UniProtKB/TrEMBL annotation:
<feature type="transmembrane region" description="Helical">
    <location>
        <begin position="234"/>
        <end position="254"/>
    </location>
</feature>
<keyword id="KW-0375">Hydrogen ion transport</keyword>
<keyword id="KW-1133">Transmembrane helix</keyword>
<protein>
    <recommendedName>
        <fullName>ATP synthase subunit a</fullName>
    </recommendedName>
</protein>
<keyword id="KW-0406">Ion transport</keyword>
<feature type="transmembrane region" description="Helical">
    <location>
        <begin position="208"/>
        <end position="228"/>
    </location>
</feature>
<comment type="function">
    <text>Key component of the proton channel; it plays a direct role in the translocation of protons across the membrane.</text>
</comment>
<dbReference type="InterPro" id="IPR035908">
    <property type="entry name" value="F0_ATP_A_sf"/>
</dbReference>
<comment type="similarity">
    <text>Belongs to the ATPase A chain family.</text>
</comment>
<keyword id="KW-0812">Transmembrane</keyword>
<feature type="transmembrane region" description="Helical">
    <location>
        <begin position="7"/>
        <end position="26"/>
    </location>
</feature>
<feature type="transmembrane region" description="Helical">
    <location>
        <begin position="330"/>
        <end position="361"/>
    </location>
</feature>
<keyword id="KW-0138">CF(0)</keyword>
<feature type="transmembrane region" description="Helical">
    <location>
        <begin position="297"/>
        <end position="318"/>
    </location>
</feature>
<keyword id="KW-0066">ATP synthesis</keyword>
<dbReference type="Pfam" id="PF00119">
    <property type="entry name" value="ATP-synt_A"/>
</dbReference>
<dbReference type="GO" id="GO:0046933">
    <property type="term" value="F:proton-transporting ATP synthase activity, rotational mechanism"/>
</dbReference>
Length: 367
């Protein structure tokens, strides 16, 4: 599926590059070159893309500067003097380090969404030749960032959907649910019948259903929310996918039976001199399996957002309204494709987690 998606994207990019001259044919070469150079100076596509897919200490919806619509979030810092809290609005939408916030006798700046504490007597951030702060240090940042707030929102939605909606229905009624509850129940049965039972087995699947359902719906809902304008890119954050992968690894390790570890570190039926070599390889496999999970999810979601933003950015880079006739339909096509990817990545992460757990709890027959 990934290779097919990559091929489709390459074909559309090739077509786009072939059509671009039709929109700029009437312009003189010198004027076009000057326009492109000026647009490149005024509009930084890389900065725009990284800003939209990155995390931040405030939730920006739309607009710019003072006219922007932004939700301030709590900034929580742990320093040598204890906890310091304030709202991100005190930075006044400034991420360049020019706005200094004074709290409890300490001075803080927001430098590209990294908060630094200025040294005593410092009035502003000073940088070395590599543009690293030399008169400031980073405290422990425990802030409720945009991604954290989006995860809280996802958890609230899941509680409302299942505890308040679907579970309450089954307590009061015996017949099948209708409407949205019917959709939720269909997906729950899908995870049970198509993922958990085939990969883990009829005897032991129920023990791991809460984890599999939580992971599936958490990833799917956050992926869908990430496609909304101004939304957070939760699963495109490597810290989130690392955490999800670690949960799978810990469940696999702590639930692995003696047969699993015997076949991992001292495989039966293999020459003794080969066993130590294979034990190292299989031991690394315990780390590589969850690493593959987190990288796949992170890379696919991040790539989709970058492609969409790059297509829209072409309009401003080339300063030609005609480009919108090509880039906007392509961006819409990729967005629709991302709806499929949102579900597909949740399914792949869940089914591979179930597969790894099933390998750990599988009962081997001994002859």
């Amino acid at each position: 599926m990934t290779a097919h998606k990559s091929l489709v994207i390459r074909v559309y990019f090739t077509l786009a590059l072939a059509i671009l001259p039709l929109f700029t044919f009437a312009q003189e070469h010198n004027e076009e070159q000057t326009s492109v150079e000026e647009a490149s100076e005024e509009f930084n596509a890389t900065e725009m893309i990284m800003h939209h897919i990155g995390d931040s200490h405030e939730w920006h919806f739309f607009g710019a500067d003072e006219s922007s619509v932004t939700l301030p979030l709590p900034v929580i810092l742990y320093t040598d003097n204890g906890l310091v809290t304030f709202m991100s609005s005190e930075f006044h939408h400034d991420a360049t380090g020019n706005t200094v916030v004074e709290k409890d006798g300490m001075r803080f700046v927001n430098l590209h969404e990294d908060i630094y504490r200025l040294n005593a007597g410092a009035e502003a951030v000073e940088f070395d030749a590599e543009h690293h702060p030399v008169n400031a240090s980073k405290p422990w940042d425990l802030s409720i960032t945009k991604n954290v707030a989006a995860m809280f929102l996802t958890v609230i939605l899941m509680i409302l959907f299942f505890s308040v909606g679907l579970a309450r229905h089954h307590k009061k009624n015996e017949h099948a649910p209708k409407g949205f509850n019917n959709v939720l129940e269909t997906l729950v049965l899908f995870v049970r019948d198509e993922i958990a039972i085939p990969q883990i087995g009829q005897k032991k699947y129920m023990k791991f259903m809460p984890f599999l359902l939580t992971v599936f719906f958490f990833i799917w809902i956050t992926n869908l929310m990430g496609l909304l304008p101004g939304a957070a890119n939760v699963t495109g954050n490597i810290a989130v996918t690392v955490s999800l992968g670690l949960f799978t690894m810990l469940i696999m390790i702590f639930n692995g039976n003696k047969d699993f570890y015997k076949h991992t570190f001292w495989m039966p039926g293999i020459p003794t001199w080969v066993k130590p070599i294979l034990a190292i390889v299989e031991g690394l496999g315990l780390l590589i399996k969850p690493a593959a999970l987190m990288i796949r999810l992170f890379a696919n979601i991040t790539a989709g957002h970058i492609i969409i933003l790059s297509l829209i950015g072409l309009i401003f880079i080339l300063e030609n309204a005609g480009i919108a006739g090509v880039s906007v339909p392509f961006a819409l096509f990729i967005t629709v494709l991302e709806l499929l990817v949102a579900f597909l990545q949740a399914f792949i992460f869940t089914i591979l987690s179930a597969l790894f757990i099933g390998m750990a709890v599988e009962e081997h027959e001994h002859h």
